[in-house]
Amino acid sequence: MKIAIIPFGNLGCTSKAAEILRKEIENSEISDTLGDISILGTNVRFGKFNKRFLKFVKKNIAKSGSDSKIFVYIVGAEIERADHYIDEMRKLLPTAVAIRYVWGTLETEGASRMEKFAIESFTDGRRKDGLPKPRLLEKELRALASEVAECCKI
Fold first, then answer.
1. How many CB atoms lie within 10 A of CB 87?
2. How many domains does one find in the chain?
3. Does the pLDDT value for residue 154 go beyond 70?
């Protein structure tokens, strides 16, 4: 049984989450193709899911269907909008077994000058509004790993 973890991100947090899941889920691997069980990860940038993620879903799941059991984790900076993103993902992938919002860090390494400016402005705005600094919620990743194990009796 192939357990594929397929991250779609831009600046590293989605891949970091994938690595945590790989360590939590026995016999799983980071991949770019669907497995018997597939855990798809996407980041949210400027309120939108990753373009490569959307293209992958359209090509490999939405049009042709898939026998793969699909789980999803969403990495984004706005914990306050978690329910919104989960609802949007449920519309996109109604057959997903589980969808988790795992929050995430805002990485500037590898970011363009404009992306760095946007990240720093966003972080400053959260701080000024008294909102917490985004961080990866490892407990949500562990919960997702448990859901995979429970569903698939790993």
1. 12
2. 1
3. no
Calculate the average pLDDT of the chain.
Answer: 91
**Integer angstrom CA distances of residue 38 from 9, 45, 116, 122:** 16, 22, 32, 32
Residue 113: both structure tokens together: 């000058």
Res 49: pLDDT: 97
Output the domain CATH number for residue 144.
Answer: 3.40.50.360
Asked if residue 72 lies in contact with residue 100, where contact means CB atoms within 8 angstroms, the answer is yes
pLDDT at 16 over 90: yes
Contact 61, 94 (CB under 8 A): no
In a domain? residue 118? no
Residue 89 and residue 99 in contact, taking contact as beta carbons nearer than 8 Å: yes
3-state secondary structure of 103: strand
Q: What is the identity of the amino acid at 71?
A: F
In what helix (H) or strand (E) does residue 139 lie, and over which residues does it extend? helix 138-152
128-150: per-residue pLDDT in tens?
Answer: 999 988 888 999 999 999 999 99
pLDDT over 70 at 63, yes or no: no
Indicate if the alpha-carbon torsion angle 113, 117, 120, 123 is positive or negative.
negative
